[in-house]
Amino acid sequence: MNTKKTLFTTLALGAVYLMKNKDTRDKIMSGIQSVSSQVKAKNSQGNV
Fold it and tell me: Which domain of life does the UniProt lineage start with (predicted)?
């Protein structure tokens, strides 16, 4: 139970930080989009 509480607290603090810091949000979103496009490209090569 204590581990779950610590995990949720950490996630909540991370979310608050991201809501306040636009530069960090932009960096994370660009990284996610980059990984997503790489995965899509890899999947489309496998389907050929």
Answer: Bacteria
Q: Global pTM?
A: 0.53
**22 vs 12: CA distance, rounded Å:** 17
Residue 47 carries which DSSP code?
T
C-alpha to C-alpha distance for 30 and 17, rounded to whole angstroms:
17
Q: d(Cα 22, Cα 37) in Å, to the nearest integer?
A: 22
**Per-residue model confidence as pLDDT tens digits over 1-48:** 689 999 999 999 988 888 888 888 888 889 989 999 998 888 887 665
Residue-range domain boundaries for the chain:
22-48
